[in-house]
Write a structure and sequence with these properties.
Helix content is 30%, strand content 24%. The chain is an alpha/beta fold. The protein has a single domain, classed as Maf protein (Alpha-Beta Complex). Strands 1, 2, 3, 4, 5, 6 and 7 form a seven-stranded mixed sheet that branches. It starts with a strand and ends with a helix.
Length: 194
């Protein structure tokens, strides 16, 4: 059986691994490297949705392929939803440890630890555009806890759990994460279209 091709507009190995597990046996998911796209697609939008749309549209316009892209990040209530769209480069560089440490410094002495991770997926399929959103709520810990995961996972404890994302296996995290929620919406949509 030949699977239809769908491009995931990312070079992020972690994201590709997480998402690839969801679409097995439905689509042949290609990443940017697979299609020969070595451009760092600018994320100049002012929201997760705008950035996701910029990436999916770039691939569709330049490679004439159906594509989905995501943008996601951490939004902290007490920091007016920072780091938000700047999550990956909050400290000024793409460095998970530096970004995480900056959040912890800004949160020193702050009682309100509420935060949420948000993902927005933009899908361009058959010349139409769709958006899917996933949000998971939780709290920022006072120190990093756990060895797994990436980004802010060691300081984010989802509501209803006594462990951070970094203490969970990828399978556990995939069951409840913001990306998983958005992906489930995307997958349900793709199944309806099949």
């Amino acid at each position: 059986m030949i699977l239809p091709e769908l491009v995931f507009a990312t070079n992020n190995k972690h994201k590709a691994e997480e998402v690839g597990k969801f679409l097995i046996n439905q689509y042949k998911v290609l990443n940017l490297k697979d299609i020969g796209c070595d451009v760092d697609i600018p994320e100049t939008g002012n929201s997760f949705a705008a950035n996701a749309e910029l990436k999916s549209s770039y691939v569709t316009e330049n490679f004439k392929l159906d594509c989905f892209a995501d943008d996601s990040g951490l939004e902290i209530d007490a920091l007016d939803n920072e780091p938000g769209i700047y999550s990956a480069r909050y400290s000024g560089v793409r460095d998970d440890v530096a970004n995480l440490n900056l959040v912890l410094r800004k949160m020193e002495g702050v009682a309100n630890r509420k935060a949420h991770f948000k993902t927005v997926i933009s899908l361009n399929k058959n010349n139409r555009k769709y958006l899917f959103e996933g949000v998971v709520y939780g709290n920022i810990t006072h120190t990093p806890i756990g060895e797994d995961g990436f980004g802010y996972d060691p300081i984010f404890m989802p509501d209803g759990y006594d462990r951070t994302f970094a203490q969970m296996s990828m399978t556990e995290k995939n069951a409840i994460s913001h990306r998983a929620i958005a992906m489930k919406k995307l997958i349900a949509f793709l199944k309806e279209q099949a």
